[in-house]
Amino acid sequence: MDYRSKQDLTGRLALVTGAGQGIGAAIAEGLAATGAEVICTDILRDRAEITARDLRAKGFKVRAEALDVTDGVAIDALAAALPPLDVLVCNAGIVTNTPAEDMTDAEWDKVIAVNLTGVFRTCRGFGRRMLEAGRGSIVNIGSMSAQIVNVPQPQCHYNASKAGVHHLTKSLAVEWATRGVRVNAVAPTYIETPLLHGLESQPGLVSRWLEMTPAGRMGQPHEIASVVQFLASDASSLLTGAVINADAGYTCI
């Protein structure tokens, strides 16, 4: 068995949502570095283009597209304009911190629309083409927040949305298991990205997170990208419906 070749994505076409920064940008690099042609998408095309430009400078085959994951019509249009994907990574997501009793309907609806409904619409739109081709690997970015309640920050909408992503992943995996399309998820811990910048201004927040993490540290974007690359490749050919905790041991206690 050639184990090295099982992780090679040469000749595969991949699309990553929310690829303009942070985890999404790292995932795009990880897939490109192992041979895939990568389409970086973001609701802000300029941000996606920055990632694509940086990766093209490294010699990778990457391009950018604007994509709002809450817009099912736009998703279907892009899916129709592309060959069937080999790899789809649903990474786009947002979070705010608001106590439940103070949360407006609009704030709840926006987080659910992006984090859960957006994942469904993206999987549905590109998944249809994968099913037609009889092949494909979908990787959804969930969260350890699907399994635990984060403290001290209040974020019930985010937690509920990510729990939905995990169960959606399992549901799609079962529906599509005999049709050549695998669906898995990654559940990260706190990752050092631009989304976390500025949290140092909230006294004790990061230190409390670290106290609750057995490894005593946050993760790096490339560490999530490596798990995604594995799930995208033939090295994970027996995995579907799996949720891999990349959480430095957080959910163990």
TrEMBL record:
Pfam families cross-referenced by the UniProt entry: adh_short_C2 (PF13561)
Gene Ontology terms: biological process: carbohydrate metabolic process
Keyword annotations from UniProtKB, A to Z: Oxidoreductase, Plasmid
UniProt keyword rRNA-binding, yes or no: no
Keyword hit for Lyase: no
GO molecular function annotation: oxidoreductase activity, acting on the CH-OH group of donors, NAD or NADP as acceptor
Entries under PANTHER family matching the protein: 3-OXOACYL-[ACYL-CARRIER-PROTEIN] REDUCTASE FABG (PTHR42760:SF115), SHORT-CHAIN DEHYDROGENASES/REDUCTASES FAMILY MEMBER (PTHR42760)
Family, per entry: Belongs to the short-chain dehydrogenases/reductases (SDR) family.
Protein name: SDR family oxidoreductase
